[in-house]
Design a protein that fits this description.
Layout (H helix, E strand, L loop, with lengths): L1 E3 L2 H13 L5 H14 L10 E6 L3 H15 L3 E6 L6 H9 L3 E2 L11 E5 L13 H10 L3 E5 L21 E5 L4 H4 L3 H5 L1 E5 L12 E3 L16 H4 L1 E5 L7 H12 L4 E6 L1 H10 L4 E4 L8 H5 L4 E4 L7 H11 L5 E3 L2 H8 L10 E3 L3 H8 L3 H6 L1 H12 L2 E4 L5 E3 L5 E3 L12 H14 L4 H20 L14 H13 L12
Parallel strand pairs: 2-3, 2-5, 3-4, 5-6, 6-7, 7-8, 9-18, 10-11, 10-13, 11-12, 13-14, 14-15, 15-16
Antiparallel strand pairs: 1-9, 16-17, 17-18
The protein binds ligand NAX, adenosine-5'-diphosphate (ADP) and potassium ion.
């Protein structure tokens, strides 16, 4: 996992470390790391035109020291001192190395490299002038932009962006990742994030946010003792007279997600379609009076997924109530979430509940404003998990998974091409398969989001080559690419082949 810490925790750890080190050592480490990332950027240090945007705090100090290092290696370094004061030793170091100070902001236009040292973890609120103007000018320049610690204008703890911010190609961050580098909108401004070890690790407490690596994703694998029941039977309640496609897509996610068996229940037209496309499923046609008994009609399962395409009428409500009335893990998605918005009482249960809303669905569930959720995703997903007593997977440009008392998991895979009807249904079926296998719900949701996003990337650009073009995808393409996504995960060494 990549660990991210909020500003308060970073400052505490830094203070403890600073007390144990010679003065200025921490900044030296940060500046050296920043310069080392900048040096190889074409046309490389010697003869390149480097512009430093220097604010009044230590972020500006790091940037001045890094600029001095680059100047000693032959770069032409000019610093724009934008703050009300300037880090003195940093400025002395830059001048001693042959760097210059300039008031001419036009140097940004012709720069090869701009280093953003306006604000770091000390930033609050939208960028004030002249910082905002400098950020806009930088965005219009062809220079490579490297942000020091965080892109100025991005809230390091939350990823909020108020107004203008620096758009970086690379962000060089120190000691630990910051949540704002992982979570949108901030993540969009950060570019590639490089972590520099400044020795903070041992002093850091539990992270606030984590982003899994491929090796952290461990979907269940069958063992020689496995049979279809032990692998996990998923009960899936999806589709209605009006919406049948959602059922086919959710069933596909579950089948390709490795469920031992999918027991599918719905109205006749949805059952007919699911059987045609996924003959592997065991189906139950629900007649008008059957909904309350769905559990016993379907047979034994280890987890439920309820919601995709079920509609929002009384019948749908009874289906959601029946699933949540069980003592099994239940994932509620799509229409099921709309039903829950008026029946929050159904969430009072002891078995785990996983909710998979997009921002609009979450807005209805917690009575918040959709735009506010998009702007402050981290805050809202945490609040929702606490308020709804559930594991909440908030979909969107960065998918977040929150469980109270645990760091928020942020999904590193995915692509904006996923924003197309039906892909969410695939995710709920896939995650449901993991729940049915007995995976802890936070891990199941994290693995679901990861593999779903990876499959989407493979569908968009199947050859996985740099520079390869991308094409629009359908939700079905995501299902088709799931096996390939699974195969990228670290292998199971116990497999000896047949015979
Ligand atoms: N504390 C430490 O031990 C270390 C800190 N380091 C660097 O120090 C940085 C933090 O330094 P500081 O605490 O001095 O804070 P910053 O340099 O991030 O920013 C503080 C200054 O920016 C101004 N400011 C804040 N928000 C603004 C806005 N929206 N518009 C315009 N001006 C704004 C403040 O008034 C203040 O003068 C880190 O991000 C990192 O780059 C590194 O050197 C590593 C060690
Ligand atoms: N801008 C975006 N960037 C990346 N992924 C996105 C973006 N917008 C939506 N997604 C993803 O697309 C999927 C859409 O799901 P959802 O909104 O439930 O659609 P549907 O209900 O039509 O299936 C989710 O996995 C979500 O995380
Ligand atoms: K910065």
């Amino acid at each position: 996992m990549r660990h991210a810490h909020e500003v308060g925790k970073v400052r505490e750890a830094e203070q403890a470390l600073m007390a144990a080190l010679p003065e200025g050592e921490l900044m030296r480490r940060a500046a050296r790391g920043l310069a080392a990332v900048c040096a190889p950027i074409p046309p490389r240090a010697y003869g390149s035109r480097v512009v430093l945007l220097v604010g009044s705090g230590d972020n500006g100090g790091d940037t001045l020291f890094a600029g001095a290092w680059l100047a000693r290696r032959g770069a032409g370094v000019e610093a724009i001192l934008a703050g009300s004061k300037t880090h003195e030793q940093g400025l002395r170091a830059l001048r001693a190395a042959g760097g210059r100070v300039t008031a001419d902001e036009a140097v940004i236009d012709a720069a090869d490299l701009v280093i953003d040292g306006l604000v770091g973890i000390g930033g609050h609120g939208g960028l004030r002038e002249p910082y905002a103007r400098l950020a806009e000018r930088t965005a219009a320049s062809a220079a490579v932009v490297v942000a020091c610690d965080v892109p100025s204008g991005v809230d390091a703890s939350t990823g909020e962006v108020e107004g203008v911010a620096i758009t970086a190609d690379v962000t060089v961050t120190f000691g630990t990742y910051k949540p704002g580098l992982f979570v949108d909108p901030g993540a969009r401004y950060a570019g590639v994030v490089e972590l520099i070890d400044i020795g903070l690790g041992p002093r850091l407490p539990e992270p606030d946010v984590v982003a899994p690596h491929s090796e952290d994703i461990r979907p269940p694998r069958p063992s020689p003792e496995s049979d279809k029941y032990r692998r996990g039977v998923l009960g899936l309640i999806a589709g209605s007279e009006q919406f049948t496609g959602a059922a086919v897509l959710a069933a596909g996610g579950a089948v390709r997600g490795g469920a031992g068996m999918v027991r599918f229940a719905s109205v006749r037209p949805a059952v007919d379609l699911v059987r045609q496309r996924w003959p592997e499923t065991v189906t139950t046609v629900l007649e008008a009076g059957d909904v309350a008994d769905v559990g016993s009609l379907v047979g034994r399962v280890q987890a439920w997924v309820v919601g995709p395409g079920i509609g929002t009428d009384e019948r749908a409500e009874a289906l959601v109530a029946a699933a949540l009335g069980s003592d099994l893990p239940v994932l509620v998605d799509a229409d099921g979430l709309t039903v829950l918005a008026r029946r929050r009482d159904l969430l009072r249960r002891t078995a785990p509940t996983v909710l998979t809303p997009h921002a609009g669905e979450l807005a209805r569930l917690i009575g918040a404003d959709r735009e506010a959720i998009e702007a402050r995703r981290l805050e809202h997903v945490r609040e929702a998990a606490a308020e709804l007593s559930a594991i909440v997977l908030l979909k969107g440009s960065t998918t977040l998974v929150a469980q109270t008392g645990r760091p928020v998991h942020v999904n590193p895979t995915g692509t904006p091409w996923l924003a197309t009807a039906g892909t969410g249904d695939v995710l709920s079926g896939l995650t449901g398969a993991f729940l049915a296998s007995g995976m802890p719900p936070l891990d199941a949701a994290t693995a679901g989001a990861y593999l779903h996003g990876l499959a989407a990337r493979f569908a968009v650009a199947p050859h996985d080559r740099p520079g390869e073009g991308q094409a629009p995808i359908s939700a079905y393409d995501v299902i088709t690419a799931l096996p390939r996504a699974f195969r990228t995960l670290s292998g199971d060494t116990t497999w000896a082949g047949p015979g």
